[in-house]
Amino acid sequence: MLRIGLTGGMGAGKSTVARLLVERGAVLVDSDLIAREVVAPGTPGLAALVAAFGDDILAADGSLDRPALAAKAFASDEARRTLNGITHPLVGQRTNELIAGAPADGIVVQDIPLLVENHLAPFMNLVVIVDAAEETRVRRLVEFRGIDEADARTRIAAQATDEQRRAVADVLLDNNGENGVIDAEVHRLWDERLIPFERNLRRRTPAPLPELPVVEANPEWPAQAQRLIARLAVACGADAQRIEHVGPTAEPGKPAADILDIRITVADTGIADGLRDRLAAIGFPPADTGEWLHASADPGRPAVVSLAVD
Fold first, then answer.
1. For residues 303 and 124, what is the distance between their CA atoms, to the nearest angstrom?
2. What is the pLDDT of residue 300?
3. pLDDT band at 155 (very low <50, low <70, confident <90, very high)
4. C-alpha distances in angstroms, 270 versus 264, 276, 307?
5. pLDDT of residue 180
6. Rounded to whole angstroms, how far apart are CA atoms 205 and 279?
């Protein structure tokens, strides 16, 4: 299956994009919904919170009084660690259950508000960021959610910055327009990138590498390469001695074809052979053009990964 990480700042329109993707057939795993589910009345999660923080974190109907919990849980670093120690494993377990239950040919969209803050981007096959200017987001929060403007700005300031989100974005969806404007872009993303990416990943076949013309140097190439390197580092673990952006696109200011070259250096041929399946599983199946050569299954980002033995 293909795992998509979806996030964006408050008021950017992430929920709208999630809904559109679900309408096309995506399996949605909503982190906020799961976080509420695991501490619902009658759950072990709520019982553990009561044991740790007291009965006064419960509302009159027996549900969790979130402001009361927040007052206690964020009073100290120790209390916050206690809260996280209870809820994070439960959220992780439920998330894994939902992903495991998705079909083998599914496109799983993980709606994660804190994807950037929790450094989860390298664990996704693709990260989609819904982007909107801060003033646009503030206006939406005030008009459509009834949030006080000062509170809206405080909440936005507590999240990752626009620059931090854009740094992990494989896909940046501009949602500064009016309602419905983004729909066509989402449908195009589904048809032209997500569907063929999932198919290539499942079949473990690279996306066709087109004959691309030499173009002027793109200042985004280094950042795009680093996103791929982060995913490769997760897959390779300690078996990789070095993972580097090499080739023409790694040379600052030099015109090149828009294909990223990544080199993984390993200690011996056995390790190189052993990485074959791991690289294919994250979207870099073996290429037909050479031993220890892999290519991206993502049709939206041509890339070649070579393994070298040191």
1. 17
2. 96
3. confident
4. 14, 10, 12
5. 83
6. 12
For residue 73, the model assigns a pLDDT of 87
Q: Other CB atoms closer than 10 Å to residue 202's CB: what's the count? A: 14
Band of pLDDT at residue 256, cut at 50, 70 and 90: very high
d(CA 115, CA 99) in angstroms, rounded, equals: 16
Q: Which of 250, 243, 226 is nearest to 279 (CA)?
A: 243
Scan for tokens 């983004």, then name that residue. Answer: 182
DSSP the chain: -EEEEEEE-TTS-HHHHHHHHHHHTPEEEEHHHHHHHTTSTTSHHHHHHHHHH-GGGB-TTSSB-HHHHHHHHTSSHHHHHHHHHHHHHHHHHHHHHHHHTS-TT-EEEEE-TTTTTTT-GGGSSEEEEEE--HHHHHHHHHHHH---HHHHHHHHHHS--HHHHHHH-SEEEE--S-TTTTHHHHHHHIIIIIHHHHHHHHHT-PPP---PPEEPPPTTHHHHHHHHHHHHHHHHGGG-SEEEEESGGGSTT--EES-EEEEEEESSHHHHHHTHHHHHHTT-PBPTTSTTEEE-S-TTS-EEEEEEE-
**Mean pLDDT score, 22-32:** 96
Q: Which of 124, 306, 110 is nearest to 197 (CA)?
A: 124
Over range 47-76, report the average pLDDT. Answer: 92
- In angstroms, the CA 142 to CA 154 distance is 13
- pLDDT value of residue 211: 87
Asked whether the beta carbons of 172 and 166 are under 8 A apart, the reply is yes
- Dihedral sign (CA 41, 46, 47, 49): negative
Report the sign of the C-alpha dihedral through residues 298, 299, 303, 306, in that order.
positive
Residue type, 35: A
CA 44 to chain CA centroid, nearest Å? 29
